[in-house]
Design brief:
It is a single chain. The protein is α+β, with helices and mostly antiparallel strands. The protein has helices spanning 2-12, 19-30, 49-67, 73-78, 103-107, 140-146; strands at 82-89, 95-101, 118-123, 129-139, 152-153, 156-157, 159-161, 172-177. α1 runs antiparallel to α2. The chain is globular. The two termini are 32 Å apart.
């Protein structure tokens, strides 16, 4: 069933992943669900006051440390990240930007602040890409088969995207962490009001 959904996803995306990577994603989701990783550090922090602020800062800092080398997109590509979905713009204003996806991390069913499934870039007018943050993603059916609680990272609950969705994917949990471009609406919201897809030029 998931294979069919993902075939539709590949056909509907503006920028398709290489066929080998797409096939690996289908194969990974077809396998048995994996056990969830143990609670992340600081997952027990209380959601309030200074504890919430500290949790927020810890997760943003962890993502910065894990992704600093990806400021050069060639490094991300060398480690298995590939562009999918073109440039994702917002429903009214702002955008998410360019999603470079590591399909091996998407299919392992494990959430780890040090190993984001996706790194996010903003296309710039000079043709370069600016690293803005990371996106953590796990498919809902895979996660729910092995866990009873909503997935979280260091106390931050992931958002559930139901199906059908604009990406043509089955339901999935996701958490954006805007570690490299501060977001006035919060570090963990889906859309960034100051990210733009205007400079994006798809490869021929």
């Amino acid at each position: 069933m998931l294979s069919g959904h993902l075939m539709n996803a590949r056909l509907s995306t503006r920028h398709l992943a290489p066929a080998a990577l797409a096939a690996a994603l289908v194969a990974g989701l077809a396998g048995p669900p994996v056990r969830a990783q143990g609670p992340a550090p600081h997952a027990s922090l209380r959601h309030g006051g200074e504890d919430l602020k500290r949790s927020t800062n810890v997760l943003v800092q962890a993502v910065r440390e894990a992704t600093e080398r990806f400021k050069d997109v060639a490094v991300a590509e060398a480690e298995g990240y590939a562009l999918m979905f073109g440039c994702v713009s917002g429903p009214d204003s702002g955008a998410m930007g360019l999603h470079y996806v590591n399909l091996g991390l998407v299919t392992d069913g494990v959430l780890d602040p040090a190993r984001p499934e996706i790194v996010i870039y903003e296309p710039l007018p000079n043709g370069r890409l600016k690293l803005t943050g990371a996106d953590f993603l796990v498919f809902a059916d895979q996660w729910n088969a092995a866990n009873t609680a909503t997935p979280q990272l260091m106390g931050q609950l992931l958002h559930l995207f139901e199906s059908p969705n604009r990406y043509g994917l089955p339901p999935f949990y996701t958490l954006h962490v805007w570690a490299w471009k501060p977001n006035a609406n919060g570090s963990f919201v889906n859309w960034h009001p100051n990210v733009s897809c205007d400079a994006y030029q798809p490869a021929p």
